[in-house]
């Protein structure tokens, strides 16, 4: 359904309220194995498109699913394996040793664009009447009333857990901007505290008002998608420019007070919503101002330039400077690079990029991670700006089928098994390894460990949990593995 408006963002289930560390330590004992373990068919209908792995074909009546997954009994463990060779959440189990030797992905946070973005079919805002500073003509668009809202309501009804909605705006109405257009380089007219800035802040509250009429309330809002984009000359789609200084002042004088004095004072506010390479500078400018900081709860980051922005220098540094504000991944997608653009059905390289980035983020204090689009068509759209990309689900509307990409299963390894409220624990290794690992204690006191192997070789290992014992397993080359066990 979301191919009609593929601007809904879904997030994995560790939604901004997770404690990230606790004084516990797991040890991984390593050995090299010679071959991958074999397994039975996991329900996927595989289709190979020549991009390194397979996509799983689904239609309106049949689709593979891991089903409901609970915690294993004490003394046993569960594993779930996705691999380049074609495994998709293949379930395994075993016994914890004394000595060495649900249905669906369960996303629980949804990022909702406020009016149009590049993945819309047209440009619009909710207040396109010039000089309407009182927002008397503010109105939701047909895209909201006929598509977004019904889909959100349906998703909420189907979800076993409450959905947390997160709103992001791409651009203010053109008449509020210095360039008089939704696209390109442009900022709000005037200065913070002025009527244009006040109107834009009130626009956020009016959005909350209109969605609340449909029994949809928002956990959080961001200060706007990629504020640096609006500072770029000839930027090709919707944007609104802010510097950290102007964002600080707008939050302090306009947006923060508007939300605090509205009917939605519990709606949280995330700053930045842009590349992590802007950290920690952006956070320092905004959060060192007490007048702005008192309205802010978190910092949103995008993944697009993570390769040139080391997590230690950006994420961890920001966390240690401002530990009371959570970090939250607010956008990511594959297929956005010009030389590697669009859909690649069955791409395993893109699945490993997702798994690596999520694991790295989690290990550096990030508490949630956004996949841009829930679903796109075979061309990586629709997108009015032709800024096509890939998605975890690709719809072939001509054949009434859809494909679940390897990235979908990677997301599920986190969203289904890593529950909100989990606490990250330390992991040490007995030797150097290519494995990338993150581990958490869940609210039900079970432990979940996710193991990414981007190498060509299989790695046999054991997990030693002082509270439980030894858990033997193997990580096949080019795979992602989830291990779950219950403490004694």
From TrEMBL:
Position of the signal peptide: 1-35
One GO process term, biological-process aspect: regulation of protein catabolic process
Record keywords, A-Z: Glycosidase, Hydrolase, Lipid metabolism, Signal, Sphingolipid metabolism
Enzyme Commission code(s) on record: 3.2.1.45
Reaction catalysed by this enzyme: a beta-D-galactosyl-(1<->1')-N-acylsphing-4-enine + cholesterol = cholesteryl 3-beta-D-galactoside + an N-acylsphing-4-enine; beta-D-glucosyl-(1<->1)-N-octadecanoylsphing-4-enine + cholesterol = cholesteryl 3-beta-D-glucoside + N-octadecanoylsphing-4-enine; cholesteryl 3-beta-D-glucoside + H2O = cholesterol + D-glucose; 1-(beta-D-galactosyl)-N-dodecanoylsphing-4-enine + cholesterol = cholesteryl 3-beta-D-galactoside + N-dodecanoylsphing-4-enine
InterPro entries assigned to the protein according to its UniProt record, in alphabetical order: GH (IPR017853), GH30_C (IPR033452), Glyco_hydro_30 (IPR001139), Glyco_hydro_30_TIM-barrel (IPR033453)
GO molecular function: beta-glucosidase activity; galactosylceramidase activity; glucosylceramidase activity; glucosyltransferase activity; signaling receptor binding
Entry membrane topology: Peripheral membrane protein
Record's protein name: Glucosylceramidase
Gene source species: Scleropages formosus (Asian bonytongue)
Taxonomic classification: Eukaryota, Metazoa, Chordata, Craniata, Vertebrata
């Amino acid at each position: 359904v979301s191919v009609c408006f593929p601007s809904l963002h879904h997030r994995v289930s560790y939604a901004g309220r997770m404690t990230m560390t606790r004084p516990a330590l797991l040890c991984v004992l390593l050995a090299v194995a010679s071959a991958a373990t074999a397994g039975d068919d996991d329900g996927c209908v595989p289709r190979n498109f020549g991009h390194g792995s397979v996509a799983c074909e689904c239609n309106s009546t049949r689709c593979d699913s891991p089903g409901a997954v609970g915690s294993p009994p004490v003394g046993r463990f569960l594993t779930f394996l996705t691999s380049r060779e074609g495994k998709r959440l293949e379930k395994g189990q075993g016994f914890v040793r004394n000595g060495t030797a649900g249905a669906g992905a369960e996303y629980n946070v949804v990022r909702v664009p406020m009016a149009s973005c590049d993945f819309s079919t047209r440009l619009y805002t909710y207040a396109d009447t010039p000089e309407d500073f009182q927002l008397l003509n503010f109105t939701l668009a047909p895209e909201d009333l006929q598509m977004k809202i019904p889909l959100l309501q349906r998703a909420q009804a189907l979800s076993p857990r409450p959905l947390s909605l997160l709103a992001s705006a791409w651009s203010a109405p053109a008449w509020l901007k210095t360039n008089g257009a939704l696209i390109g380089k442009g900022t709000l007219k005037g200065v913070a505290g002025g009527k244009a800035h006040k109107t834009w802040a009130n626009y956020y509250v009016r959005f909350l008002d209109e969605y609340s009429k449909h029994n949809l309330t928002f956990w959080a809002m961001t200060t706007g998608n990629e504020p640096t984009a609006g500072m770029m000359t000839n930027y090709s789609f919707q944007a609104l420019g802010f510097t950290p200084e102007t964002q600080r002042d707008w939050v302090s004088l306009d947006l923060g007070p508007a939300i605090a004095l509205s009917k939605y004072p519990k709606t949280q506010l995330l700053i930045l919503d842009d590349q992590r390479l802007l950290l920690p500078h952006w956070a320092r400018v905004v959060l060192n101002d007490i007048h702005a900081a008192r309205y802010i709860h978190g910092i949103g980051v995008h993944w697009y330039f993570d390769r040139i922005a080391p997590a230690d220098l950006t994420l961890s540094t920001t966390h240690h400077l401002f530990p009371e504000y959570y970090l939250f991944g607010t956008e990511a997608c594959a297929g956005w690079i010009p030389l590697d653009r669009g859909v690649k059905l069955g791409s395993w390289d893109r699945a490993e990029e997702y798994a690596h980035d999520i694991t790295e983020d989690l290990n550096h204090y990030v508490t949630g991670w956004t996949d841009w689009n829930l679903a796109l068509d075979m061309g990586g759209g629709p997108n009015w700006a032709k800024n096509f990309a890939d998605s975890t689900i690709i719809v072939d509307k001509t054949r009434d089928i859809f494909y679940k990409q390897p990235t979908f299963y990677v997301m599920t390894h986190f969203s289904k098994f890593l529950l909100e409220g989990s606490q990250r624990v330390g992991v040490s290794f007995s030797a150097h390894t290519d494995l990338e690992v993150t581990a958490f204690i869940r609210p039900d006191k079970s432990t979940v460990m996710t193991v990414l192997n981007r190498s060509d070789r299989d790695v046999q290992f054991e997990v030693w949990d002082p509270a439980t014992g030894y858990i033997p397993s193997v990580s096949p080359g080019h795979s992602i593995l989830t291990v779950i066990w219950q403490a004694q």
